[in-house]
């Protein structure tokens, strides 16, 4: 992505397009993470309803999966913020 910014700056287009892309990327990353975590929660609740005796295992797997998705989304938002401010 940095090479794209350098290329855009050299061509003369400026960083306006790169800033717009970074802002859209951060928004998409946040929305996709929210949708993914919501889907994990919904399927976990369905699984617990089907097998209440496995609630502890399902809950722990749900928390680990949600944390991994949130970590990736946070990483994407930070990368987009770096593109905006550097």
TrEMBL record:
Q: Does the keyword Ion transport apply?
A: yes
Q: Tell me the classification of the organism that encodes this protein.
A: Bacteria, Pseudomonadati, Bacteroidota, Bacteroidia, Marinilabiliales
- Asked whether the UniProt record includes Transport among its keywords, one would answer yes
Q: Which InterPro entries match?
A: ATP_synth_F0_csu, ATP_synth_F0_csu_DDCD_BS, ATP_synth_F0_csu_sf, ATPase_proteolipid_c-like_dom, F/V-ATP_Csub_sf
Q: Per the record, GO CC terms?
A: plasma membrane; proton-transporting ATP synthase complex; proton-transporting two-sector ATPase complex, proton-transporting domain
**Name of this chain's protein:** ATP synthase subunit c
User: Which organism encodes this protein?
Assistant: Gaoshiqia sediminis
Q: Where is the V-ATPase proteolipid subunit C-like domain?
A: 20-83
Q: Where is this site: Reversibly protonated during proton transport?
A: 70
Q: Which residues form a coiled coil?
A: none
Function text: F(1)F(0) ATP synthase produces ATP from ADP in the presence of a proton or sodium gradient. F-type ATPases consist of two structural domains, F(1) containing the extramembraneous catalytic core and F(0) containing the membrane proton channel, linked together by a central stalk and a peripheral stalk. During catalysis, ATP synthesis in the catalytic domain of F(1) is coupled via a rotary mechanism of the central stalk subunits to proton translocation. Key component of the F(0) channel; it plays a direct role in translocation across the membrane. A homomeric c-ring of between 10-14 subunits forms the central stalk rotor element with the F(1) delta and epsilon subunits.
**Annotated compartments:** Cell membrane; Membrane
Q: Which Pfam families match?
A: ATP-synt_C
The entry's family comment says: Belongs to the ATPase C chain family.
């Amino acid at each position: 992505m940095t090479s794209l910014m350098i290329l855009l700056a050299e061509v003369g287009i400026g960083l306006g397009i790169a800033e717009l892309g970074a802002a859209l990327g951060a928004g998409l990353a946040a929305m996709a993470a929210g949708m993914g975590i919501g889907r994990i929660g919904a399927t976990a609740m369905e699984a617990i309803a089907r097998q209440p005796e496995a609630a502890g295992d399902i809950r722990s797997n749900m928390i680990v999966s949600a944390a991994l998705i949130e970590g990736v989304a946070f990483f994407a938002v930070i990368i987009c913020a770096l593109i905006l401010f550097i």
